[in-house]
Design goal:
Helix content is 11%, strand content 37%. It contains three helices and eleven strands, in the order H-E-E-E-E-E-E-H-E-E-E-E-E-H. It has helices at residues 51-65, 136-139, 224-230, and strands at 69-78, 83-91, 95-100, 106-111, 114-119, 124-129, 150-158, 161-168, 176-182, 187-194, 200-210. Strands 6-5-4-3-2-1-11-10-9-8-7 form an eleven-stranded antiparallel sheet, with helices on one face. The longest helix has 15 residues, at 51-65.
């Protein structure tokens, strides 16, 4: 079976039709790490890395590698203006859960091997190897932003913000992921995935907490259709 492209997980993060209209989200502070110019329409052009870029990349690697668990609220947005929100749990290596708030009927779980996407509205489940998704950047046993499966092509800075754009090593046409950090202090605030067709999805975090302990069941996917069939 042909290996799915690096940004195949973009297809696993659609905004449900019920959430396609923007809505006010009381109590949610705006994410500060916003790329300049709004939602990107394509992978940014590569820029030669400076000594400062490499120093910041090393600092970001150390910061991300120190996060073993993270829980946060998230807001997901696409270039068409659709929004949805929910809660995510991350546990390295290899585990993550996106739980969307109603009316969305979407669940995304990384169980250590696969990213599993379930859309209850159409009773459809997809399995994508973690290594074929941009989530692998954040879920690796050891996070490496240089010299591994991904390579940095740009490091951009504005007051209080650092943006790092990564592509899959040797595959620049398959899209990119841009990690957005507040700095100082260094803190992951968002990521933006741009696929090979230039379609972008942004996930912004707020209320993040690190260092917690999570129930392992959070990262196990049980197909709801199993229970639906038992009741028929």
């Amino acid at each position: 079976m042909r290996r799915r492209p690096f940004l195949a997980a973009l297809a696993a993060l659609p905004l449900p039709a019920a959430a396609q209209q923007s809505r006010s989200l009381p109590g949610r502070p705006p994410a500060p790490a916003q790329p300049r110019g709004g939602m990107p329409a394509a992978t940014p052009e590569p820029a030669p890395l400076t000594a400062q870029d490499r120093a910041d990349l090393a600092r970001i690697e150390a910061y991300l590698d120190g996060i073993r668990t993270l829980k946060a609220r998230f807001v997901q947005a696409d270039a068409r203006g659709g929004t949805a929100e929910g809660t995510l749990w991350l546990q390295r290596p290899g585990r993550m859960r996106f739980e969307y708030d109603p009316p969305a009927q979407i669940l995304l779980v990384a169980d250590g091997m696969f990213v599993i996407f379930h859309d209850r509205s159409v009773q459809q489940t997809s399995h994508i190897p973690i290594g074929a998704t941009p989530l692998s950047v954040l879920l690796a046993e050891r996070i490496r932003l240089t010299g591994g499966d991904v390579e940095p092509i740009r490091v951009d800075r504005s007051p209080g913000v650092i943006l790092v754009t990564l592509i899959q090593a040797g595959k620049p046409r398959e899209g990119s992921i841009t990690l957005g950090f507040a700095d100082p202090p260094l803190e992951l605030r968002q990521w933006t995935v741009v696929d090979a067709q230039g379609q972008a999805v942004r996930v912004s975090l707020y209320g993040a907490e690190t260092g917690g302990r999570f129930d392992p069941a959070l990262f196990r996917f049980v197909d709801p259709r199993t229970f639906d069939n038992r009741t028929n």
